[in-house]
């Protein structure tokens, strides 16, 4: 058990039978009445974000999440096959479980699988990945003063806003949390 006063960003907790990770929290001490903790939690089973308020000092269950290194192998219809790097066991996850992550997954890529008591909740991507530009319009010199961007499609199908100097076949560093261009690799 853990007190809500000890909340930290990234902490995993069990509330009402579901597993959540703490995205944001705020301790509130109103002038009148009892103190409370306002929190923003992400459900690890379905990806929904909820806001919950807890009384100060309230205790909730701590969820012990297991992370293992796995390798993404290939897509097979609606399923995506992964292999455990230690045991070489293969398992698959559906497209519904990997909606956002599919924008960044390439074959033979190493990621971490997130599980709770044997139930696979999803995968954790690295903070950034290198992806090749497959389609973009050519940049025209002199048509802007500063900071202009254009649309580029990368090898996974994700569309990213990039600076005008980016060309097809360039390798880009993409932030997996927001899906934004960081730099050329």
Automatic annotation (TrEMBL):
One of its GO terms (biological process) is peptide biosynthetic process. It holds the Pfam family Elong-fact-P_C. SMART domains: EFP, Elong-fact-P_C. InterPro entries: Elong-fact-P_C, NA-bd_OB-fold, Rib_uL2_dom2, Transl_elong_fac_P/YeiP, Transl_elong_KOW-like, Transl_elong_P/YeiP_cen, Transl_elong_P/YeiP_CS, Transl_elongation_fac_P. Keywords: Cytoplasm, Elongation factor, Protein biosynthesis. One of its GO terms (cellular component) is cytosol. Transmembrane segments: none annotated. PANTHER family: ELONGATION FACTOR P, ELONGATION FACTOR P (EF-P) FAMILY PROTEIN. This is Elongation factor P. The lineage of its organism: Bacteria, Bacillati, Bacillota, Bacilli, Bacillales. The gene is efp.
């Amino acid at each position: 058990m853990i007190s809500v006063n000890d909340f930290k960003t990234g902490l995993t907790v069990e509330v009402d039978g579901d597993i959540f990770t703490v995205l944001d929290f705020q301790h509130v001490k109103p002038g009148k009445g009892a103190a409370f903790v306002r929190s923003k939690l992400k459900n690890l089973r379905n990806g929904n974000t909820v806001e919950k308020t807890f009384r100060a000092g309230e205790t909730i269950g701590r969820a012990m999440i297991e992370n293992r290194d796995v390798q993404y192998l290939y897509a097979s219809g609606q399923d995506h096959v992964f292999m455990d790097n230690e045991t070489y066991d293969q398992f698959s996850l559906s497209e519904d479980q990997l909606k956002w992550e599919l924008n960044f997954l390439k074959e033979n890529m190493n990621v971490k699988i997130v599980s709770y008591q044997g139930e696979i909740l999803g995968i954790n991507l690295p903070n950034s990945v290198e992806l090749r530009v497959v389609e973009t319009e050519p940049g025209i010199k002199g048509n802007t003063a500063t900071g202009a961007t254009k649309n580029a499609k990368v090898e996974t199908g994700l569309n990213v806003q990039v600076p005008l100097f980016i060309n097809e076949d360039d390798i880009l560093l993409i932030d997996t949390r927001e899906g934004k261009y960081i730099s050329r690799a």
